[in-house]
Specification:
This protein is an alpha/beta fold. Helices cover about 35% and strands about 25% of the residues. The chain is built from 4 helices and 6 strands. The chain has helices at about 10-20, 40-50, 70-80, 95-105, and strands spanning about 1-10, 30-35, 55-60, 85-90, 115, 120. Strands 1, 2, 3, 4, 5 and 6 form a 6-stranded parallel beta sheet that branches. It is globular and about 35 Å long.
Amino acid sequence: MIPVTIVTGGRAADREAAIQARLDPALVTAVIIEGLPDGTTRLDVQSSTQPPHLQLQRIAPGCLCCTGNLVMRVTLNRLLRSKPAQLFIAISNASHLPQLRAALGSPPYDTWLRLHEDMVLP
């Protein structure tokens, strides 16, 4: 099963820095980030220089369990085909975190994903 960490809170740059701090260069890691950066980020640079180890996908801002549900599922399904060793999902608003966790813990994802404790930034 693929361990999943949901990262929320703080600014977009803080969430990306928290993810980058947890990356293991020996593992293939998939990252789904809600929102678009204000410029090139370190994760963008790292994903372009090390494509086999970091698969970075950005989704337009919007609640991933509501308006972005289809987009999130399509993106997630594509990333899961590559069988990453770990997955991070960064969201800007934690108000629907329980619904997102429920979606990730439901079929078919319950057989592929193991939800870890969320990273909630100040």
